[in-house]
Amino acid sequence: MSIAESLEKADGLDDGGVNLWRGAWRRLRRSPTAWLGAVIVGAFLLVALAAPLLTSYEPASTQWAGQVGTSNVPGPSEDHVLGLDRFGSDLWTQLVYGARTSLLYGVISTLIGLVAGATLGAVAGGFATVGGRIGGVVDSALMRLVDIMLSVPSLLLAVSVAAVLGQSGTAIVIAIGVAQVPVFARLLRSSMLSQGQADYVLAANALGLRRSRIVMSHLLPNSVGPTIVQATLNLATAIIEVAALSYLGLGAPDPAIAEWGRMLVAAQDRFDEAPRLAVLPGVAIAVTALGFTLLGESLRESLDPRSRR
Amino acid sequence: MSAPATPETGRTPLLSVRDLRVRFTRDGRTTTAVDEVAFDVAPGQNVALVGESGSGKSVTSLAVMGLLPARGVEVSGSVTYDGRDLLGMRPRELERLRGPEIAMVFQDPMTSLNPVVTVGTQLDEVLKRHFDLSRRERRERCADLLARVGIPDPVRRLKEYPHQLSGGMRQRVLIAIALACEPRLLIADEPTTALDVTIQAQVLDVLAELVAGSSTALLLITHDLGVVAGVCDEVNVMYAGRIVEQAPRRPLFAAPAHPYTDGLLGSIPRLDTPRGAPLVPIPGSPTQTLPWADACAFAPRCPRVEDDCRAGAPRLEARGEGRDVRCFHPLVPTATRKDLR
What is the pTM of this model? Predict the structure, then answer.
């Protein structure tokens, strides 16, 4: 068979990036861990998106407040699958709408952190590895900026942002997102630096490839793995942080927005008589975080061509 | 110092290195890795740079390619390629030269290929960078290149990742990538060191064959004189950053003049070595050197050392037959050879 003939048969030479992700997807589908993570994440996405279909009540509707006594919170009944909370709202409705809030805030804040952080990190790492003489200066300048961001505690940052923007969901999202920037920037930069030492980068240089090409097609694909894992893991922490900031009263003041963190606060003084009020949102937070963690971990494995089984 | 021997053909050199000196500065301390290095590579000629680890041969090749890091490294002297000064060249110009004019094969095939990109893409991006070819033409060329370095079923291999190939295959791929743009000068830095002995011969054959069948000149960097014997026309032997002997292949192998070259030849088995005769290693290690500034660096390990070797630095001097030797007491004294003639 001639080369031309066999080329006809071959279904094309794709760009490295495309092939890499396609291979990763194939491996991901074979991993039970990835499936578990994906099922959890998928279930929460479904609950969050389809919240109005899963319950017939409005979140934070306190129309049953009269049924809640000083020493008694009504448990599961025919009308209320999981019972009421201390304000007389339907607990199932609160949980379902809480998923919506958590996922939305978590995803947006992580995206802010990822996009801003990865851009900073990639520029710094790119300049440091193939930027020549001025590269080091650009890298140092960017990284000092990141250091300054890192030196501000994220909680303090969140309080300050909330102070500037007012107490709102936007403030929480920006605060959590900005607090994540240094992590992504440093992670991507450091993995690019270590990849920059690799022989194949030297070899690519020796072939006269453009420096932009070396960064985009050689350094980045070899460096994004840890950053993607971190993004998925950060989703887990972001969801917890959203809850934490709400717990501290920095979240949206509107009681009509159900939030797992605020549910935990409310459950505190009724824990003895109705532990489910704290346990259920707690489990929801933990399971969601676990789902993203499992997914992130299997994503990392599948992106590493050497972990092919 | 004396000018190196012009190749016997008298052609103008493609690559001309003069007075090359590379110094590394770290924590305020300066180390001279390469000094007074001068040699020529004529078009189509195969030249070897031979020496032990740390003799400065790889640093020399990286300096020629302009691939040494910018910080903490000081390169002086001149490197002229096709009449153009490489050391003073802007990075952008140098980038255009690398690939179509000068290409390089690296030592370790396990790490010199990007692990997450297919072999085909790594070949393709070089063609894409330097040639104006259609996607289809490039693809055919890629498959053809792999076939030329002796990789069976090249079309399938194009879609594979480096970890799916053996070490010998990967080195073949690296050779294919380096030759993709048909460079006029190929620098091969220990191209067979990381491979099994049986594979070494195969890969060396592929390299020698491709270089012989084209107008490409080869600068072969190796520690193995056995590799040099089959491939190269001119040999430069380096020790502690300087060239100690520079000679055409035949006179060098027939009668090495520098005691170090003699030691290197004595330490490899030859067909005419009597059976059972032990190989003679060079005593000591390359770390036992004297500074070139006021002595011969090889003196601590040299079997022919005399007092004057520790008192002043020998210079590279012409000893006939196109040979230059940096030694006070070479093995073939000039007078003796004249008598023989």
Answer: 0.76
